[in-house]
């Protein structure tokens, strides 16, 4: 009998579950702002995005993992597995629907 | 010899000292979002603004004072004394100059 490998999925808040305070908290950190800025050029369609290691950060791998998780749990980024690598992208559409203009204002301010 | 009463002034960051991370951290709290929303209708000219006690909050006076101070130290609000009362107002002009669109996006999201 063939075995199937379950696709590993990470928990994400649904669009309506994304809370403003959590998003602002997630963004209120220089490392996480760097991550968000680094993901800005990537789309959010199927499989597009950057792996964690593609985002250069001056922290250890476990600290990096922590920061990506905070962003995911707040609803700022989507993380999905491709093999063993996590692909990350901004949840632009969801964030724009929930908090119009917020992500763009933060990205603009962070890159100023 | 007449005595002069020094005007008590509270420390505020200058416009160029306002940091994005500090502003986002200050806003990433439901009580502080309530304060910012409550101050939204007030102007920022001489003496305009609301006293701390005019902003109704479900916390003790000392906790309220703490939250106002976090907002002031981050550069989100201006606090000045009128007699013994602190008058609070949003630093709209400074925030808009530093981080265009950010305060408006947060205010809109907080009141949605």
TrEMBL record, chains A, B:
Coiled coil: none annotated. SUPFAM superfamilies: Winged helix' DNA-binding domain (SSF46785). It holds the Pfam family HTH_20. Residues 12-110 form the HTH arsR-type domain. This is Helix-turn-helix transcriptional regulator. It comes from Streptomyces spirodelae.
